[in-house]
Specification:
By secondary structure, this protein is of the alpha/beta class. Helices cover 38% and strands 14% of the residues. It starts with a helix and ends in a 12-residue tail after the last helix.
């Protein structure tokens, strides 16, 4: 089996100098979490997504380096907005990894579905890519 998208994401973050990834793990983020365990990036578990985003923003601003924050799909992924907005406002280099339900379930208003193209992230994001299935 080839590399998963999660492995490539984590390798890219590591090569970009990310030292810490703050956030809240959920089922749709398990592949990223497993890839982080195999990397040099330290996972810092937070009790709330917003706190993770603010922590990542603080580290990025104070250490002047790219920092990551990650979380599971659904309304929890929207909790990142305040911290990401603050990072954007302060030009702190933070990357957000927010998972999504599988593509086949999009558009049916399933539990945990959030349309990132219709949320506040479009005003804050520089790049909003999506994979089509978590097995990637």
């Amino acid at each position: 089996m080839g590399k998963l998208v999660a492995d490539i994401i984590v390798e890219t973050l590591q090569s970009a100098g990310v030292k810490h990834c703050y956030g809240v793990v959920g089922d749709t983020l398990n592949l990223i979490a497993r890839s982080l365990e195999k990397s040099q990036i330290e996972w810092i578990s937070m009790r709330h997504e917003e706190a993770g985003a603010f922590a990542a923003q603080a580290e990025a601003q104070l250490a002047d380096r790219l920092t990551a924050v990650a979380g599971s799909c659904g309304p929890g992924s929207l909790h990142f907005i305040n911290g990401i907005f603050e990072a954007n406002r302060n030009r702190a280099p933070v990357i957000l990894i927010a998972s999504q339900i599988i593509r086949d379930e999009l558009g049916f208003d399933f539990i945990q579905e959030v349309d990132f193209n219709q949320s506040h992230y479009t005003a804050l994001g520089r790049l909003l890519p999506a994979t089509s299935h978590q097995s990637q």
